[in-house]
Fold this sequence. Notes:
Layout: H1 3-6, H2 11-28, H3 34-37, H4 46-52, H5 55-63, E1 81-85, E2 91-94, E3 98-99, E4 107-108, E5 117-122, E6 129-134, E7 140-145, E8 155-158, E9 163-167
Antiparallel strand pairs: 1-2, 1-9, 3-4, 4-8, 5-6, 6-7, 7-8
Amino acid sequence: MNAQDEFPLSRRSLIAGLALGASLPILAACGASPAQAKNFPVSLTEAQWRGKLSKGEFYVLRQAGTERPYSSPLNDEKRSGTFVCAGCGNALYSSKTKFESGTGWPSFYAAIDRGAVGTSTDYKLGYPRTEVHCADCGGHLGHIFNDGPRPTGKRHCINGIAMDFSPA
């Protein structure tokens, strides 16, 4: 008996099977975001969101898009105040927790309070990332990384177009 009879699976079939298995988490992530599938206190139809938001805001908040780095004026905002959700006005971040990350997106080491934002796991790039969304409307804000400053060590990397700024 030779190896071909003992293992009828060809190398090509084996590689194809492994590639398919590895791609399943990516394919599963292509559906609705967990944040958008959940019920939130502020809930509008897609048509209502499209009417309320600009095209860019809709792309980021409702379709989990990402704005280009350094494209938001909020990245350079230095005044004291509160960053609120552009979709529903929920207070998200205080200027007191904003820091310069050098990434091109507004960055914060903590949300304004524990209930301001929610998180879910995002596999869109093929590996798990912590996605952050508005706790009131479910709008996609950005991602949280473990490379921020003290006291939390977290970097909330937020799309500026997903927020409005209210000066103190």
